[in-house]
Each structure stands twice: as structure tokens, then as C-alpha cells.
Specification:
Radius of gyration: 14 Å
GO molecular function: copper ion binding
Protein name: Copper chaperone CopZ
CATH architecture: 2-Layer Sandwich
Organism: Acholeplasma laidlawii
Strand content: 25-35%
Bound molecules: copper (II) ion
CATH topology: Alpha-Beta Plaits
Oligomer: single chain
Largest sheet: 4 strands, antiparallel
Pfam family, one: HMA
Order of helices and strands: EHEEHEH
Shape: globular
Number of domains: 1
Number of helices: 3
InterPro entries: HMA_Cu_ion-bd, HMA_dom, HMA_dom_sf
Number of strands: 4
């Protein structure tokens, strides 16, 4: 089992947390799912033979939330979004 921790954007209340938790936990090979609303972190253990990080990201996106890449911090993400907005306008 490998431990992973992803940043999830867009959660605003306990029911968002429950949705993300449920979407992640239902995947085969995932255990010990924990979602923290304050830090916007999704942590879990996973069996690499059964499931990939991409699967988890897809599942979270499918219920309406955004997952940041492991290498990108929330601050970098925010910065990138701002830069994209500047370019757009
Ligand atoms: Cu909510």
C-alpha cells in the first residue's frame, strides 16, 4: 500500500467532504480515506496494482471537485489561475 495526499479544490461544507470521501472510498484498492475541509486535503492509502492516482482524480472530478497535481501546491495553483485570467482578459 502506498500513502497519497492530494489537494482538492471547491469543497465548502461537510456534504462536499462526504461526497469526495464517498467517491474516493468506493474505488477498488483504496483504504483509509480522509478528507480535511480546512486544509483541502484528501489522504488515502492505495494499492497500485488495483488503482491509480488518475482514477482517484477522475472520481473526485466526477462528483464536481478539482484535484491539484501532486507537484503543484495550492498557492502555485492560485497563481497559475490568476495568470491565466490575466492572459484571458
Ligand atoms: Cu458542500
Amino acid at each position: 500500500m502506498k500513502h497519497e495526499n492530494l489537494s482538492v479544490k471547491g469543497m465548502t461544507c461537510a456534504s462536499c467532504v462526504a461526497s469526495v470521501e464517498k467517491a474516493t472510498a468506493k474505488l477498488d484498492g483504496i483504504t483509509n480515506v480522509n478528507v480535511n475541509l480546512t486544509t483541502e486535503k484528501l489522504t488515502f492509502d492505495y494499492d497500485m496494482d488495483k488503482v491509480s492516482i488518475e482514477d482517484v482524480k477522475k472520481a473526485v472530478k466526477a462528483v464536481g471537485y478539482e484535484v491539484l497535481t501532486e507537484t503543484e501546491t495550492a498557492d502555485e495553483h492560485q497563481l497559475r489561475k490568476e495568470q491565466e485570467n490575466i492572459t484571458y482578459f
